[in-house]
Each structure stands twice: as C-alpha cells, then as structure tokens.
Amino acid sequence: MKLFASLLLMATCLVAFPAHAAMPAQPSLKITTLDGKPYDLAAQRGHWVIVNFWATWCVPCIKELPDIAHFVSTHPNVRAIGIAYEDTDPSDIRAFLAKHPVSYPIAQVTMDKPLKDFDEPVGLPTTWLIAPDGKVAKHFMGPITSAALSATIGK
C-alpha cells in the first residue's frame, strides 16, 4: 500500500509540476527587436554576447543599462541584446528607452511566451554571457558589473 501511495504521489507531482527541459549549453535566439529588425544570436559567433533580461519597473535593471552599454562600447569583441521581460505595450518600452537610451538592440518577451532556449528568469535582472563559440559562459542573477564581466571574459 505504501508503494502504491508513493507512486500515486510521484505521478501527481509529475502532472502538477511538469519537467522543465534544461537550457542548452549553446542556446539559440531568433527574435525581432523593438525597432523591427531581426536578431539572431548565431550571427554573433566570434563575439562575446551579453543577453540581459530586464524590465522598465526594475530599479537595478535601470541602473545597469548604461553600464552594459558602456562595457559594450569599450570592448570591441562584446555585443549585447536586452530582453525586456514584461507584459506591457511595446510603445511604453520604446518611450522608456527614449529616456534611458542604450547602444544595443532591445527586444520584448512576454511572460506567456518565454524564449525557447533560455530559462525563464526567477528574478530581474538576469544575464547570460555567451562565449564566442555560442556556449553559455556564465549566468548572472542580479545586477552585473564591468568587473564581473571582465573577470569572465578575461579582459
């Protein structure tokens, strides 16, 4: 009877909490940016890429946006893409970016349509640093700094 109860509990958990596929070591990302341009992470091979999940209401996210832009502008082998992770109208994000401009592309992902190859952030900001070979080099939870990026990249 205990075995049956244990199996029933496990089956219930599997239905209630389906298994989440692990994020691939070499994720893909094909998305349209807020300015209507296609973005393909694979086209960035040969460069380090900062994939930064953020939101307009997230104070630490707002603080790190210019830091990321500065890091990218001072490191020729580094690119970035910002992923606005929120269910707001894209025009609101564009208005926000007019007040807080960045030098890298921004796309929006809504919570009901997460990216296929990236784990859903459990908090914001969340950043993945992708190595020149396309593999995940580091996952950062919380604000990133130039020092942390430099330490991972080796510059």
From TrEMBL:
It comes from the Bacteria. Its main location: other. The keyword Membrane does not apply. InterPro entries: AhpC/TSA (IPR000866), Thioredoxin-like_sf (IPR036249), Thioredoxin_domain (IPR013766), Thioredoxin_ResA/DsbE_sf (IPR050553). One of its GO terms (molecular function) is antioxidant activity. One of its GO terms (biological process) is cytochrome complex assembly. Keywords: Cytochrome c-type biogenesis, Disulfide bond, Redox-active center, Signal. This is TlpA family protein disulfide reductase. It comes from Dyella monticola.
